[in-house]
C-alpha cells in the first residue's frame, strides 16, 4: 500500500521533501500558505545561500535548474574590522549560489506538481492539525508560521539563547562593484555586528545583496527599523553611512553616486530568535507529527546554514519514509538520531558566532598570515558539523592553530569587552 504524506509548509524544507517523496512514488500533499504567483510578487523572502552539498542535492532531486559552477562563486572574503583590522580571502572547493526565493520556490512548486504532487494553497491553522493529520498516514510540519512551532517543545538538553542575537536588515542594491574573483564577503565589525555581501540571482539578473546583522542596541541597530517604503532616500543614505562607518572592505567598492536599494520590495527587516525544538510531537489523538525546517531548528542567517540544514533534514526524513513505512515512535526516534549531529552543530556554531568570542575572532586574525589556514577554514565552513568541532571551544581552536604551526594569540582588550556584552 502506497503511504500518503501531508506536509504543512512550502519552503525549501517542505518542497525538497515533497519532490523527494514523489520521486519515490509516495503520495504527497503540500499545504502552502501562498501560491506561486503570490510568492513571485512578494517582498524579498530571505537572503540565503546554497552551498555545494545543497546544490548536489538539488541535482539528485532533479530541481537543479541553476548551474552553480556558472552562476555561483568559489571564493570567501573574511574581515574583522576594528582597532586591528584583519582581512584574508581563500578559494572554496565547492560552489555556493544565492537565488531569490521569489523565483526559486515557485519553480519548486511547479516541479512538485509536474511529478504528480498535490499542492493545496491555503493557510493551515494549529487547531486544524488533528483534522489534517487524519487525511494522511504521516504529517510533517515544515513551517513556523501561525504558531505551528509551538506544537514542538523547546529542547531542554540544548542551550538556548534568550531572544534574538542580531537585528536584521537585508537589501538588494546597485552601486557596489563585485570583488574579483567573485565571492561572498563576510565582515565582522567589533561592537557593531556583521555584514554579509554576496551576489544574488533574481528574475531581473544578478544583483548585490547586503545583509546587515546588527547587535541590538549597537550603532547599526536602527537599520532594521527604518522604512524604505516611507522614505527610500533616507533608507539608502543610512545603508551607505553604515558601510562607510563600519564595513570598509565593502565600502571601498561603492560608487556613492549610483548606490541605492533596488526597491522597497527588495528589502527585508526583522530579527530571528534561534531555537531548537523536539523532533516530533503527538496530536490529541496520539498520532505523531514530525518537525522539519524552521518548525524544528531556527537559526540566525549569520553563518549561512539555514536553507542548507533545512534541505539536509528533508533528505534524511524523505529517505527514512521511503525506507520504513512504519510511522511509529521507533521511526520518529530513528529520524531524530540520523539528523541530530548536523542540525545541532549548525545551531550551536551559529549561536557561538553570534557571541563573537575572542577565540573565534583570533582564529580569523591568524588566517591573515597563513594561506594554508585560510584555505582550510574556507573548506570547513560549508560543513557545520566539521566547523563546530573546530571552533566550539578555545582549546579546540588552539589545537587547530597549532596544527598549522601557529601559536594562539592573546585576547585584545576590545575583544574582551565585546565578548562580555
From TrEMBL:
<feature type="domain" description="Styrene monooxygenase StyA putative substrate binding">
    <location>
        <begin position="144"/>
        <end position="253"/>
    </location>
</feature>
<dbReference type="InterPro" id="IPR041654">
    <property type="entry name" value="StyA_sbd"/>
</dbReference>
<dbReference type="Pfam" id="PF17885">
    <property type="entry name" value="Smoa_sbd"/>
</dbReference>
<dbReference type="GO" id="GO:0004497">
    <property type="term" value="F:monooxygenase activity"/>
</dbReference>
<dbReference type="InterPro" id="IPR036188">
    <property type="entry name" value="FAD/NAD-bd_sf"/>
</dbReference>
<protein>
    <submittedName>
        <fullName>Styrene monooxygenase/indole monooxygenase family protein</fullName>
    </submittedName>
</protein>
<keyword id="KW-0560">Oxidoreductase</keyword>
<keyword id="KW-0503">Monooxygenase</keyword>
